[in-house]
Amino acid sequence: MPALILDGTRIAQEIRSEVAAEVKAMTAAGVRPGLAVVLVGHNPASEIYVRGKVKACEEVGVYSEQFTPSESATTAELLALIEGLNRRDEIDGILVQLPLPAQVDAKKVLLAVDPAKDVDGFHPMNVGFLSTQRPGLVPCTPAGIIEILQRSGIPIAGQEAVVVGRSDIVGKPVAMLLTNANATVTICHSKTRDLAGVCRRADILVAAIGRAGMITRDFMKPGATVIDVGMNTVTGLAEFRRFFAGNARREEMFAKKGTTLVGDVHPEVAEIAGAITPVPGGVGPLTIAMLMFNTAKAAKMRRGNRVAELSRA
Ligand code: NDP
């Protein structure tokens, strides 16, 4: 039986509608959530991501401001910008689009963001809150993965979950969220022995690797749920055919654009998985939806009871 396709676009839209309703109520009560987006230089991929984030703000009613320091910006200049945003009351969330230019000390810049406004959830204080199960801001992509599982009715508690990838942005936080949701979690990485064997234990397999189609059917327990975080651009025809030979829709798209997006999971896995996120249209759309969610959450957390009091007034 073919896998159930977990439609991230639909789930993300559902979350965006919920956030929009909440933002409307908050705005009516005099507290409009605001997001500052900092985009340094001219990285074309970053520019596309930032456009998507600003557009999402408009759609859900979040106030947004964009800052575009030049490619030659120094660490000191960015720290001054962040400090200014930390002080502005109408700014609830600060997002520094990564990667930053090589001359900038990215860790120092991210550490300067007020943890209460850290809508990416990367600040060590929010990392600590997550690992100790305290209220805080959770990284967007991992939070989105949990939303996909929960809103699709896929049980997490008691399940064997295997996460391939241990980055601070995806692998580690998603493993922590799954642990907090009572899964039994194994984290794998490039030094893991018998990766396929470990993955075959998984009821829930999360691939956050950055290698096109690396997870093949050999890594699968039949019927498992697969979350494919990878976003890899394929441009070569031979590589394209390795994944999509015989897929007329993909072939047409590839002929038109000369490029296509492939996850870390080989498309053949859909034949034996129980449920799977597609690429594109799986995890990707959740990242921006959860950024909107986090901005509204930051606004509520920063203002404490004031929002509740204003809503009652
Ligand atoms: P990183 O490069 O930071 O981390 C990759 C991880 O994969 C590392 O832990 C690395 O291990 C592990 N890895 C690499 N090769 C292998 C291998 N052969 N076997 C086992 N493990 C391996 O990537 P990110 O976590 O930032 O991103 C992962 C993917 O997710 C990328 O494709 C990225 O584009 C995508 N992504 C998608 C998002 C979305 O919104 N959909 C958001 C963020 C990322 P080690 O630590 O040992 O080096």
Textual characterization of the structure:
With 313 residues, this protein is an alpha/beta fold. It folds into 2 domains: 29-116, 3-Layer(aba) Sandwich (Rossmann fold); 140-283, 3-Layer(aba) Sandwich (Rossmann fold), CATH 3.40.50. Helix content is 44%, strand content 13%. The chain has helices at 8-28, 44-60, 75-87, 106-112, 124-131, 140-151, 171-180, 195-199, 237-244, 248-257, 284-303, 306-312, and strands spanning 4-5, 34-38, 63-67, 93-96, 160-164, 184-188, 204-207, 225-228, 232-234, 260-262, 275-276. The protein has a 6-stranded parallel beta sheet. A 3-stranded parallel beta sheet has the order 3-2-4, sandwiched between helices. Helix 2 links the parallel strand 2 (34-38) and strand 3 (63-67). The longest helix is centred in the first third of the chain and has 21 residues, at 8-28. The chain is globular, with a radius of gyration of 20 Å. The mean pLDDT is 96. Bound molecules: NADPH dihydro-nicotinamide-adenine-dinucleotide phosphate. NADPH dihydro-nicotinamide-adenine-dinucleotide phosphate (NDP) is lined by residues 141, 164-167, 169-171, 188-192, 195, 208-211, 229-232, 283-284, 287.
